[in-house]
Amino acid sequence: xxxxxxEIVAVTGGKFLCGDENVVVNDVCIDSRVTKEGDLYVPxxxxxxxxxxxxxxxxxxxxxxxxxxxxxxxxxDKPYIKVDNTIKALQDIGAYIRxxxxxxxxxxxxxxxxxxxxxxxxxxxxxxxxxxxxxGNQNSQIGTPITxxxxxxxxxxxxxxxxxxxxxxMEILSAMVKPDICVVSKIGVAHIEFLKTKENIRKEKxxxxxxxxxxxxxxxxxxxxxxxxxxxxxxxxxxxxxxxEWCDYRAENIHMENYQYVYDYVHGDERVxxxxxxxxxxNVIDSLAGLAIADYMKLxxxxxxxxxxxxxxxxxxxxxxPGKYTIIDDTYNASPDSMKASxxxxxxxxxPEGGKKLVVLGDMFELGENSEKYHIEVGEHLAKKxxxxxxxxxxxxxxxxxxxxxxxxxxxxxxxxDNGEVALxxxxxxxxxxxxxxxxxxxxxxxxxxxxxLG
Length: 455
Fold this sequence. Notes:
The protein has helices at about 5-10, 55-60, 85-100, 115-125, 145-150, 170-175, 190-195, 200-205, 225-230, 280-295, 300-305, 335-350, 370-380, 400-405, 420-430, 445-455, and strands spanning about 5, 15-20, 25, 25-30, 40, 65, 80, 105-110, 130-135, 155-160, 180-185, 215-220, 240, 250-255, 260-265, 270-275, 315-320, 325-330, 355-360, 390-395, 410-415, 435-440. It is an alpha/beta fold. α3 (about 85-100) packs parallel to α5 (about 145-150) and α12 packs parallel to α13 (about 370-380).
């Protein structure tokens, strides 16, 4: 970061209240519990707490702070910068840092698969370039400017995940990031509680291009029907990746070998064999996005494809416990589309004779007034699969079990109140040839079950 308090005052349109305006800031922090020397503290006013009440604690290590509540007179050796809105000021800082870099920036969004797509693109590009990317889930109105502020001079390309939940938020992110390449992975129902329809979600996601470089390019998942509908109507240079013949970048001859997907990458006259170390056919499409962008950037696609042989993603982690059982850890988050995709992965896997397939499903949040309907749809989808046992935990997931029990499926349903009960049950029933998938929204902390099973 390496900017002065004086620069921050100018960038944010703030007012310098006290301290030394020549103090240098190296990073930003929004949590007073994890501050470090050189940080600028940014107090956020949230639903549950106001970060301003922790300023004094934060300044024990931080070198300066923003504030939106203090009067013009503050007595402190450390700089206070008065701004109208600390989140807007943080975004101004992020945009200022971004403008210092003249490197290609790839912006990634979508209702489903944006994190994996981000990781796949970063993996492909890392074959030849030093890649800076979003860390974890820092993709929001607050997380994105923090991510931008931490870009370093070593980066030769940046791959930034951009998430939104309400109308207008993507335009704000696009204005900060100013992407050169935009990617939309899929249109689903995540955040439909706030945006009401999938058409509104699509419109919001596509506004990622609102501040794209005028010579930039938009990449759409051609296998998604809602994105296919608009491929010729975006108003910007657009390419599609997917499995359909008309897609500019295609995956052909897709099949599974030893828990890995193998396919042919096809673009024009070029054909490259890809071995993908990831479960789930949907991950083929995500990796295809990475190869398409590497190709578009005129990098060596064969080198990029080689990177996927050792891919380590955040989703669908396959964990073999010798002499015991196998776990598919997909506890990172959940939406109806991603939950169905994970169920499909479990369905595709073959277990030894006598082995069982179990799935632990938790609630999916932020689905609005149709939440019950979406959970029922997951249950109806599951009921058609070759899976032995369903375990549900949480209130909404009960609808998944209800739908399975109302079907003619042979899947046995078990209901539990908390993660501890689920872990104890799995530990007592699972055998060495069994495999279990765990999937649910972050708020349920289903990763606790995985931790208990790993012991």
